[in-house]
Amino acid sequence: QVQLVESGGGLVQAGGSLRLSCAASGSIGSLNAMGWYRQAPGKQRELVATIIGQASTNYADSVKGRFTISRDNAKNTVYLQMNSLKPEDTAVYYCKYWVLIGSGVYWGQGTQVTVSS
């Protein structure tokens, strides 16, 4: 089992920045990936960014150039630096952990990000 705890959400004005953190604990394997997804009211959960290892990243087109995902393997923590935030970024942001070989997908409880115009 893997437990994920997110932090860093909140209320920010458009153009502002926030940094989300997600700390993983439990049975952390060496071959894994982590990422951030978000779900706005009335919409499906969507990918924001993922990271495998330290350098293999993937971003949704809507956040490219504004958001940066990174991870600290020593702390089993993934970060999402969000800059130039827009009202349409408002959503609950979820951290995801999954293993690359075998099965195992875990989600955090979510953290609310609200961007006011």
Question: Explain this structure to me?
Answer:
By secondary structure, the chain is mainly β. 0% of the residues lie in helices and 58% in strands. It is built from no helices and eleven strands. The chain is globular and about 40 Å long. The N and C termini lie far apart (40 Å). The model has no long low-confidence stretch (mean pLDDT 95).
Topology:
Layout: E1 2-7, E2 10-13, E3 18-26, E4 32-39, E5 46-52, E6 56-59, E7 67-72, E8 77-82, E9 91-99, E10 105-107, E11 111-116
Parallel strand pairs: 2-11
Antiparallel strand pairs: 1-3, 3-8, 4-5, 4-9, 5-6, 7-8, 9-10, 9-11
Order of helical and strand elements? EEEEEEEEEEE
Helix content range:
under 10%
Mean pLDDT, to the nearest integer, reads 95
The count of helical stretches stands at 0
* Beta-strand percentage range: over 45%
Outline type: globular
Question: Structural class, judged by helices and strands?
Answer: mainly beta
Number of strands: 11
Using only C-alpha atoms, the radius of gyration works out to 14 Å
Q: Can you tell me the residue ranges where pLDDT is under 50 for at least 5 consecutive residues?
A: none
Distance between the termini: 40 Å
Largest sheet: 7 strands, mixed
